[in-house]
Here is the input.
Amino acid sequence: MPQMSRVELYAAIRRDHRGGMSMRELERKHGVTWRTVRKALDSAWPEPRKKLPPRATALDPYKPVIDGILRGDLDAPRKQRHTVTRIFHRLVDEHGADVSYGMVRYYVAARKPEILVESGKAPLEAFVPQTHQPGHEAEVDFGDVTIRLAGELVTCYLFSFRLSYSGKAVHRIVDCTYS
Here is the structure.
């Protein structure tokens, strides 16, 4: 049997509890502790996972150095900018860093676009969600559709209606004329 999600588990516990099962029976049946049963009965939704703080890495002391190199490259001609390999070798040779190339590569890949935005040389990405009020907006369209009906080509008129809030659509053939 596949592992069920916590939401499904909570729903199953509540359903069995409404069916008359005791707390102990729920614990045994679902293989959970009494705390989990109590949480499932108190709330329909499980608590969200806690975000752990980022762990310290060997690269942390050298991040300001890398940022300085990347900021210095903003005004440099394209051919004179530092590659990730060059940044890595500078960290090892000049600063004695004991870091892997992959750590440097991932940090530079994430940090370079941020530095470009901070300096004003790249546009800030933005997302504007579309929101529609229920019943306020809809799209209507008419069009010709040619279909083959009983071996004959028939031109029909299609009515299309779509509600913007729910995305539900209705399509109807209105009138057909034989060609």
The radius of gyration is 31 Å. The beta strands are 138-149, 152-163, 169-178.
